[in-house]
Amino acid sequence: MTMWVFGYGSLLWNPGFEVDEQQVGMMHDYARSFCMRSIHHRGTSEHPGLVLALDEMQGARCEGVALRVKAGTEAETLAYLRERELISSAYLEKNLAVHLKNGEVIEAVTYVIDPNHVQYCHLDLEAQAQVISRAIGDRGPNTDYLHNTASHLVELGIEDEDLNWLSQRVKTLCS
């Protein structure tokens, strides 16, 4: 059976698994948001960073990329993703509908935020910029995560005004 994964953050530029195909797609009723405190990859317990998550929100839409996993690697890909994405159990793994640009609707493994988890947060854009500009985790500066994601969305022709604003604001804060 064909396995798809929905990428909306670091999976856009660092999937970490073999991809046979990628297509821009839309997920309904979820918003891409820096609503997860990162205590591992982009921050620490003492100084959390922020990473993107899909926040369930009626009427919202998130444009990202559907990644078709290389045939025959589904089990190892799922094991890898679970180790990477479920490190602190702040994400929930769901199989959700993604509407591809070509009109096809596929089901994709998707990691969404658990709104009841202690790492879930809601900060305004300026507060997000302040956190991101200073946080560093075991995978590097939070700024790298933000700028890589923002630039890859632009390359894909995906407009995300909040990420563009954050990227510019963080560059200003860090200069």
From TrEMBL:
EC class, as a word, reads lyase
Q: Tell me which UniProt keywords the record has, alphabetically.
A: Lyase
Q: Which Pfam families match?
A: ChaC
- Molecular function terms in GO for this entry? glutathione specific gamma-glutamylcyclotransferase activity
List the residue ranges forming a coiled coil, or say none. none
Q: Name one GO cellular component term.
A: cytoplasm
EC code = 4.3.2.7
Q: What name does UniProt use for this protein?
A: glutathione-specific gamma-glutamylcyclotransferase
Q: Which organism is it from?
A: Planktotalea frisia
